[in-house]
Task: structure prediction
Amino acid sequence: MEAYTGFAEVYDIFMDNVPYEEWADYIEDILKEYGIEDGLVLDLGCGTGSMTQELAGRGYDMIGVDYSGEMLEIAMDKREKSGADILYLLQDMREFELYGTVRAVVSACDSVNYITEEEELVQVFRLVNNYLDPKGIFLFDFNTEYKYREVLGESTIAEDREECSFIWDNYYDEEDQINEYELTLFIREKEGLYRKYQEQHFQKAYTLDTMKRLIEESGLVFETAYDAYTRNAPGEDSERICVIAREHGK
Result:
């Protein structure tokens, strides 16, 4: 799993199309359905803290965990500006540790797809189960195989902004079910010059059936799944799926 480095600096600029507020409303509604209206909530793979901030603003006591120090620096800047009481931890989600249990764990923006080995994803799920309160809820989303194969695979995405530009080349290996991102960034410096960064990212394509199996292997209980932040059932052409699982003993 690769940490975000140069991309962290401009991540929020290129993610301005993500409706964090709407997604946070959705997550809040789900949590309330399961009786979780307040208390400690973990944002696993929190990135620059956009979702963490949203949920903190809805009254949850937030903890954010991420593997990238560069991303967490931005998250902590947001925390300072907002005055939110959020604990950020620089940890690998495959080995994360908390000081106690939480009422819910959330993970948005396909963070779990960065775990490219099934046994490692089971370990993530085991840790989630371990740190959830009894009957606590785990809500996460993931990109589907359909999205990697039909939408992203073998495509190039490019954007040009005033302060930065990027070229995002995608390569999907159907046999290994791995999508490789080759990311080239040009970020404007103070003196008006542009600095070039290059990063490589890998994400694993999982099916919903595989996710169910891994959830059960971890000790969690699969509750339900929806098509991308809706209440509709997932379909063959779903690009993102939201999963709800429940704690089931330690």
Q: What stands out?
A: The mean pLDDT is 92.
